[in-house]
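idk why but the lab printer keeps eating my pages so im just putting this in chat instead. protein + adenosine-5'-triphosphate:
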Amino acid sequence: MVVLEKAPAKINLSLDVLHKRNDGFHEVEMVMTTVDLADRIELTLLDQDKIKVVSESRFVPNDERNLAYRAAKLMKEHFQVKQGVRIFIEKNIPVAAGLAGGSSDAAAVLRGVNKLWGLEADIDELAELGAEIGSDVSFCVYGGTALAKGRGEKITHLPSPPPCWVVLAKPAIGVSTQTVYQKLNIKQAEHPDTQAMIKALEEKDFAGICTHVANTLEGVTTKLHPEVNQIKEKMSEAGADAVLMSGSGPTVFALVAQDARVHRIYNSLKGFCPEVHIVRMLGNRETTC
Ligand code: ATP
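predcted complex ->
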């Protein structure tokens, strides 16, 4: 038996860091939405009691460090499953990019082995389990558009943004989320107006969404990697409606309403950035292949 799952990347329309908690995590408020750049996860039932990860990406570990492996292990232990699974990951999402690629793979495995092993857990239970793997996994279990609070695991679903193009550009650097949080000065950083972003989504107000994109972590990453600002400038000059760094970076995204501008923005980045993608905002909760 084989189960296929789509593991879409996310972007942060807004990301606010409120304060550092006593448990070491940061309290955040993030408005996230999925885009149609996705890893493809193929799960094959194994009769033996083992988990095997196969990925052709040299940036992703094929052992128990892989978040997809950890998701399968968690499900096995939680539901006392005796069967195994072979997890094949077709990696299309840039790694360590601020696009939650690993979290989305883990979420896809939670959904997928639930079907493969006939466990019948509901999606809220999978999202709750996902929080044990990583802060973005709960959101990725659902996909779509949502407000994520707490350390990212408290999810409130939101209306999807109006359809538009998204240009993603990742410079040839990886960013450690941990380092960015360590260097963040919460008081001095820029903070988004999360409520205004939510209102814009509720009103399907594309201009409002563009006005309110903001990311508290952006200032830290741009200081470490000035390329991020150069990408933002190039995108703006080429006619993007909004530009922002996603997550802790370094990927920058442009929101673009007009078809005619998308290729201009893409071309302005091609050659400057090794990874540039034109994708659509997914917005809805589409997670099957
Ligand atoms: P986030 O936006 O949630 O901070 P990210 O997009 O910045 O995530 P990932 O692509 O998820 O980062 O990768 C972060 C690290 O996790 C990498 O160093 C990578 O080696 C490791 N990793 C483990 N499993 C995976 C996976 N399935 N896909 C990608 N990276 C993985």
